[in-house]
Amino acid sequence: MNKRISLPPSSTATSVDLSTTKLCCKHMERIAMMNNLTIEKLHQLRLPGMAAEFERQITTPTASDLPFEQRMRSIVDHEITVRKSRKLQMLLRRASLPLNASLEDVDYRTPRGLDKSLFLSLGSLDWIRNRHNVVITGPTGTGKSWLACALAHQACRDGLASYFIRVTALVDSMVTARATGSFGNRLEGLNKYDLLVIDDWGIDAFNKRAQNDLLELIVKRLDNRSILFTSQFPMSSWHAAFNDKTIADATMDRVVHSSYVLELNGDSMRSANAPVSKRSGKKTEKQ
């Protein structure tokens, strides 16, 4: 008589467990593939912040315990953060700021006639939004350019386009633009910035062509965009840079009546406020 041979219960259970494991593995593979496709699509839609946060969540075990709404909010918030950071980097790159300055590092202790109350109010940038101007005057080394860069840096942080240029470079660029027939484009390019910083105004006398070009730029920006001037000379002596008194009067009157003025004085801060870095041994300025 033939005996029926049957598998022991333990063997049957093991077979079922293996099948279940295989199904689970295939399911996880499908989920991983779908997640990768989602990340790829987010990049195609130019949403790198959302892609990065989604990838972080799917690789963090505890993230699945959070409500869907909270996870989605985190994904959207990260995209906003990434976009703001990228915009700031772009604005700073285009601003061409020669000094790494910020409002947090302004030195109010060194005597130089800096009106702290006025400068703090300028830090709110309402003057840019209201299309007013700022003039910073004072001797060499009192921190005019540094303060200008700090305000321009803050403008970039607030999403306002800024551009820093020395007046001599500005005049040279206008001369070149005239020669190449692109003066109109140059003027429009300068006028697209919310804040134009013109450094070392009045350091050289301007010829008549340069005077007319500068006046055209200023008139075009007044009441539409803001200008920040730095100069070694008080505003009362700015007329000397112009040969044509009519042009000088027209330019200066409009600037004076629409500007906040910071008049600095004292000795140079460059050597006094340049502590030596422990890492590089180089001096770092704080003005």
UniProtKB/TrEMBL annotation:
It comes from the Bacteria. GO terms for biological process: DNA replication. It holds the Pfam family IstB_IS21. Keywords: ATP-binding, Nucleotide-binding. InterPro entries: AAA+_ATPase, DNAC/IstB-like, IstB, IstB_ATP-bd, P-loop_NTPase. GO terms for molecular function: ATP binding. Gene3D superfamilies: P-loop containing nucleotide triphosphate hydrolases (3.40.50.300). Residues 130-262 form the AAA+ ATPase domain. Belongs to the IS21/IS1162 putative ATP-binding protein family. This is AAA family ATPase. It comes from Herbaspirillum aquaticum. The lineage of its organism: Bacteria, Pseudomonadati, Pseudomonadota, Betaproteobacteria, Burkholderiales.
